[in-house]
Automatic annotation (TrEMBL):
Pfam families: CHASE2 (PF05226), EAL (PF00563), GGDEF (PF00990), PAS_9 (PF13426)
Residues covered by the EAL domain: 649-902
Gene source species: Bradyrhizobium archetypum
Residue span(s) of domain GGDEF: 507-640
The protein, known as: EAL domain-containing protein
Amino acid sequence: MKRYRSHIFVMIALAIVLAGGWHSSLRNALADLRFAWQSRQVSGNIVVIAIDASSIDRIGVWPWPRVLHAELIRQLQKADVQDIALDVDFSTPSDASSDRNFAEALQNAGGSVVLPSFQQPRTDRTTLHINRPLQQFAEHSWPAVVNVEVGRDGLVRHYPFGEKLDGKFVPSMAAVLAGQYAEKRTPFLIDFSIRTAGIPKVSFADVLRGDPATLQKLQSKKVIVGGTALELGDRFSVPNGVILSGPVLQTLAAESLLQNRALQWTSGVVTATGLALLALLMLFSWRRLSAGTRVALLAATAIAIEAGAFALQAVFPLMLDTSLFHIAIIVYIAATGLDEIDIRDLLGRVAESRFQRVAMSLGDGLICTDSNYLITVWNPGATAIFGYLPEEMIGRSFDKICARDGTTATSPFSISDAARLAAGSVIEFDGRRSNGEVFPVEASFSGWQGTDGFQFGAILRDISVRKREAARIKYLAEYDTLTGLINRNTLHGELEAKISAAEANGHKVALLVIGIDGFQQINDMLGHTCGDLVLRAISQRLTAAIPPAGQVARLSGDEFAIAVPTSDIGESLGRFAEQIGDGFDTPLLAGNRHLRVKVSIGAAVFPGDGRTADELLSNAHLALSRAKATNRGGYVLFEDSIRRELEKRLTLEAELALAAERNEFELFYQPQLHLADGRLIGAEALIRWRHPERGLVSPGEFMPVVNTSPISDRIAEWVLQTACAKGAAWERAGHKLRIGVNLSPSQMVSGDLAISVAQVLANTGLSPTSLELEVTEDILLHDEQGALNTFLEIQELGVRLVFDDFGTGFASLSYLKKFPLDGLKIDRSFVLGLLTNPDDAAIVSSTIGLSKQLGLSVIAEGIEDRSTADLLARMGCEEGQGYCFGRPMPATEFEAKFLAAPTAVEVA
Ligand code: C2E
Ligand code: MG
Ligand code: MG
């Protein structure tokens, strides 16, 4: 709607002008102006014979007898004029002889004289009376109307081509003189730019007296005879304040016709089209051009239209009606102004109310200041943040809320600094609340030129919570929350920094990874709370033990690390590691409990043991693993051999996985005999790896790797299955043998060993009593209760359990008490030295005695010669196994040697 507002205004204005009748006045006023500015010369072909004051004076009587007019016609004929038009009333009779004389003159003129007819209102003013020349004159003359139309403004502008008098068309006097008799057209507009001053005039009296000079002027001219004397009253007002006598007006009309200047207004279609074009121009430019440009465009259009109209009128007898254009243009200009004033005012008010609403509802603080930085706006958000009410702050300096001696931001901030900031840039500064508290504020400032100078606005936000959160997140990302030490990530960064520094000055950096021995047990036995206290105490002890340039980190649950330039540790790295370890000789205080904790340490040094943080961490860990495996409670400095071993181990693991797939494993069987009579009582299944290149590989080389790798389960299962199957086959062949199978640690971890043993027995058909499972101490170590349960279930099945390598571990004796075993296998290390080493003999002897006491079977391994066998037999050991009776051998060989005939084995 708003878009078309100006056009609607224009339409209304035009409608009012047209309906109110002001259109023609405007149009005429513009036309009059153009007449005033243009100037045309008369042709000079029409001469006015003036019945002027001097003629009246000279003739001396009034009204004149018609003989004078008759005489005039004769004189004019003599002067050889072209046309004679008399603008004199001949409608009423005068004295008869005079009339006759005039009629004769007309007749003599050959009927070429034009006499006027005119209409004039009767006295009742309702009807018209037509004044015609008397019949006797009309017979010998041309009739012509001399009526002119007087406009509402009392001015004559139009002139008719003729009129219908009593139903007959009579041409107008000017039309007759111009030779245009056609009954046509509406009245034309007299061209008032033709200057009447140039119309040739001669005095009636001069013609009448036959003044040769006067008559000379009239030769071949058209003449109009009429009254010009003021007292005759035949006068008309025309545009631009000019008054013309009747004959001059008739002459002007005739001149207009003769010069083809019978003006016509352009058609309404032209005006309508022009207005439509103007509307289109405005429609197009309204939003595209500024108001000023539009006004200029409109003014230019007005000038162009007027100039065009002027030019058109100069060249053609056409009067372009520009009045409506000018009205439209004026209204458009007014509407533009209105629009501008409106919009600005409205926008101002809308913006103001919007600003108020936004400012009041904003959660953030919004503060505006004047050019002196005195606060002018203070919203509820600002009150919430700073604690001041608006009335306390309006008019006060902005700097009142800035903590110039702040502590959280880098530099103190003043509002005067805002002037230098780019608009919209966000800064942080220390704010001060009404209670004096200093806190971080985030602010974005803007400045603008207001009505009373430059002003500032600031959106402020209390970011103390955000800052705290960010600090907390940073802390969580970088530190170990339990101990407050840096975490693995941070250590990594620190280590890298230390390495770069060391690289620059040619120094070394040591990394020690410290593992707590048996931390799991502390957690399990004393609970996690105590475990946490221990970890804290350890972190404190480590922190206290390092030089200032060192850094302690917690890497994982029970692992810590120390990164330190070697230049700061004084002695050798070994000595430093030892000191760290020794630091734990004194018990730790965890709550109210004193605990003794041991740590194992692995250490690596930049650049020798690794050039990056990753390499150092990895190698120090390897050294720690080595320490835990070989030097628990001590330290190991990284060496390349550790990594090489690891690599070797990894290669072996891969090879073993491949070997399992290719079925390269094989079970050998070693006989077990009754020492007294050499009777075969059983066989121990012992694994071999038939390596495609290396030949037979003994289990000592690969089982430790198998036992700690993922293929352990698979291989252990295969051993049990294969041995039981073989034992069952021998059983079916009539050989009642005990099959010894070595258990792997992984079989105890799963907890379902008893189930799988039962399944294997069921699958193979081996009697449970023929199966003897051999366990070593390392199997029992990690979960005694679990092992106990499994053993009980296995024994339920009827399967025997014997303790392998008895006497080599730390707690062999205690296990005898804890576990429900069926027998012992005396380790071959005691048996091998039995004959020579009295200690071994004592151990073996007491083991045999112990087993007897406990009701356990006992078998000696590693019997390599007969005398050892005999000694063992004498000592009370009933069973034996060793090279002396047979080496571990493939099943076929075993069958050939021992199962061919059920005989006692002959000892070599
Ligand atoms: P072990 O269970 O104590 O097996 C007895 C070991 O003593 C066998 O070594 C055997 O060849 C060896 N031996 C027997 N008599 C003599 C002797 O007169 N003199 C000497 N010097 N040695 C004798 P092997 O076959 O090399 O096995 C070594 C260890 O590997 C086994 O010790 C056992 O702990 C493990 N092992 C062997 N096979 C398997 C298996 O199938 N599963 C599991 N889990 N471990 C196995
Ligand atoms: Mg064994
Ligand atoms: Mg053994």
